[in-house]
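sorry for the late reply, my laptop died twice this morning and i had to redo everyting from scratch. anyway the thing you sent over, i finally got around to it. pasting the sequence first so we're on the same page, its 235 residues, then the predicted structure underneath. double check i copied it right bc i was rushing
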Amino acid sequence: MHEGHRRRLYEKLKNGGNLYEHELLEILLFNAYPRKNTNPIAHELLNRFPSIAEVLSADFEELISVPGVGEQVALYLMCVGQCVEKGNNATSFTVLANRGDIYDFVKLRMRGLSVEKLELYFLDKNGKLMRICRFSSGDSDKVVVQPEEVIKLISVSHPYGMIIAHNHTGGGSRPSQMDDDFTKQCQIICSMNNVRLYDHVIYSSDSDIFSYFDAGRLDEIEREYSIRNLIKHGK
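ok and here's the structure:
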């Protein structure tokens, strides 16, 4: 019975349904009570505290005084509350507003890696970093990302712009034919989804970094592989 109720609440949450406060608290408590009906405890908490916000800001002694709430659950709710508080008070975020910002960030992310990894940085229109998506095949000298994966990530994140970055573990930062092909694929995908492809940066070391933008190659790829030009040439 509990599993069916949990599935219904999960579906309601997944589909953007209007959840009551006690239902949200029930879902939150699923992790604390894997095999227990959380509805009575959610109601007990909201009988004691006037809102979820008050539940999550309550101290330890207050929480364990609520029937059904033990030490571990109280600590769990306090931890969630502190995560929410830190998220609400966050005033710092990463902005990649210029070439120096991009290079510094790629160095920070790629320095010291022993296997090849590829990352996609999704940005809003002000250059604020929204998401980082990292890929690795586990091989020291290659990483393969399918276009379908990029399309899916863009469709759920809705970025304004995107930067590609990956590292070379040997042989310098000059791009391979595979790097060129992936950049072209990403340009087509970005063009189809109204996303700006800002750069593809290849890191070999702090003193050896290749940028498609700085080398002028991104501009060439953008002209040739925009969806408008592809349709025009296909006629």
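The two ends are 59 Å apart (CA to CA).
thats about all i looked at so far, will dig more tmrw
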